Amino acid sequence: MLLRPPASAGKVQLGTHSFTFDHVYGSSASPSSSMFEDCVSPLVEGPFQGYNATFLAYGQTGSGKTYTMGTRFKDGYQTGVIRQSMAALFNKIESLQDQIEFQLHVSFIEDSLGGNNRIVMIACVSPADINAEETHNTLKRFWCDRMETTKELEHTLLQDFTDKELHELNKSLDTF
Predict the structure, then answer these.
(1) Cα angle vertex 171, ends 54, 131, to 5°?
(2) Is 46 annotated as a binding residue?
(3) Does 66 count as an annotated binding residue?
(4) Chain center to CA of 14
(5) 65 assigned binding-site residue
(6) Residue 59 assigned ligand-binding role
């Protein structure tokens, strides 16, 4: 994501290296809203057509990844693409639940190496118990939980785990 458009549209030149891009999202208002509509919203529709979908924020420290993804679920914080995509998924499931049985797997990871950050992964957003083993095998090293609504998602993300709780959880996963 570029915060300022370069002189030549669609291309950035750094020394002998040339980088192309499709769009510049500015720093004013809420860049995640535009980004959600342009980039993520089409991905949210994919699972309902049999496709997998991934959206990823990658870049240097301080470039706005966390802000844009919006991993904070507290009042006063901007609504990022994670919360918007989860709301869109659950709304779509709710609108189709009388017509289709869903088995939807959603993985989320926030990985940071500084401060008091923790790795959190949420997996297997599904009312079906048959997904538990697959989720466990795929995400064996991460804390995970099942949820069926965005409220449960918010509650899960707001939990603050102590080092002891994380150690005990990791130890219990090692027994599998």
Answers:
(1) 40
(2) no
(3) yes
(4) 31
(5) yes
(6) yes
